[in-house]
Task: inverse folding
């Protein structure tokens, strides 16, 4: 499956965080790369959405919707936002 | 859905009437969610094709193995209703205040959000110099062909065809590679602002090519739609 990028998460992130988040700064918890959400490598279409670091492909975030509740795992992000 | 316009044999523009639409920015998209009778749901993102201030419209190109696009291109009719989330996105957006010079590079239906930016530029009376480089498989597949053929002050449009060269075609052919970019992209010294939208591999190649030319990576904004659907 060809990956998308963080722009594809805009709707989901707005629902989760209540604000536009694709332009937010990110720091990868694996390699320390600084980027923005929109530039992450995103896989959708499985049971959820997965965002990976464009530099090291480390896992940044996972979003899974279970019975109408979105579960969010941001463990791979050292920082989100400024 | 209030109106349909065919753009190419595989793409059409759907005008939407969305209750409480807050207005949108050029480059934003909407998520469209379809629910089948058995409850199965599919959701895809589609870029807004209209300019800010215009009613929302999306242009959808049919992917032969798609779940959503064949329905939107072949089946949906005026008056049909579906779920829309948006407008969303705040990274891949342009307004006159963003400045330029503006370089827009599109692969296939990646032209849709860039068309919104160009319409916004025109309707807002912006004099930011702009160039659109648009890669299309065939001439028949060029979306907004008539609109892009109208000359506008400060705007240059370069179409390149990657699959065939129709009789009488005097434009460019071949992929958007280093050679074409070096020739048509604004010099890096002008501190251009670039937006690149298309299939993932296209965007990777063009963005890398622009950085190679000296473009500031922070001013090369990208949006990838993969081959799995959307936009």
Result:
């Amino acid at each position: 499956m060809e990956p998308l990028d963080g722009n594809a998460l805009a709707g989901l992130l707005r629902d989760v965080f209540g604000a536009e988040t694709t332009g937010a700064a990110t720091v990868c918890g694996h390699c320390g790369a600084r980027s923005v959400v929109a530039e992450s490598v995103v896989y959708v279409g499985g049971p959820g959405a997965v965002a990976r670091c464009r530099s090291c492909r480390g896992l940044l975030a996972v979003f899974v919707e279970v019975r109408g509740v979105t579960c969010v795992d941001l463990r791979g992000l050292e920082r989100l936002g400024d | 859905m209030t109106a349909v316009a065919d753009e190419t044999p595989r793409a059409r523009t759907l005008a939407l009437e969305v209750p409480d639409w807050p207005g949108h920015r050029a480059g934003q998209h909407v998520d469209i969610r379809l629910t089948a009778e058995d409850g199965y749901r599919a959701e895809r993102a589609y870029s807004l094709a209209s300019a800010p201030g215009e009613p929302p419209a999306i242009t959808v190109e049919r992917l032969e193995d798609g779940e959503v696009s064949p329905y939107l291109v072949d089946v949906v009719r005026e008056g049909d209703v579906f779920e829309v989330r948006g407008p969303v996105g705040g990274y891949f957006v342009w307004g006159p205040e963003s400045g330029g010079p503006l370089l827009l590079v599109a692969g296939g239906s990646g032209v849709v959000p860039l068309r919104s930016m160009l319409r916004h530029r025109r309707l807002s009376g912006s004099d930011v110099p702009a160039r659109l480089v648009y890669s299309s498989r065939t001439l028949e597949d060029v979306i907004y062909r008539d609109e892009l053929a109208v000359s506008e002050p400060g705007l240059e449009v370069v179409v390149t065809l990657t699959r065939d060269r129709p009789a009488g075609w005097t434009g460019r052919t071949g992929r958007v590679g280093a050679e074409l970019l070096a020739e048509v992209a604004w010099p890096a010294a002008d501190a251009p602002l670039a937006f690149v939208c298309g299939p993932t591999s296209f965007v990777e190649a063009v963005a890398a090519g622009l950085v190679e030319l000296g473009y500031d990576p922070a001013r090369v904004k990208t949006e990838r739609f993969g081959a799995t659907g959307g936009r």
Q: What stands out?
A: Chain B has five helices and twelve strands.
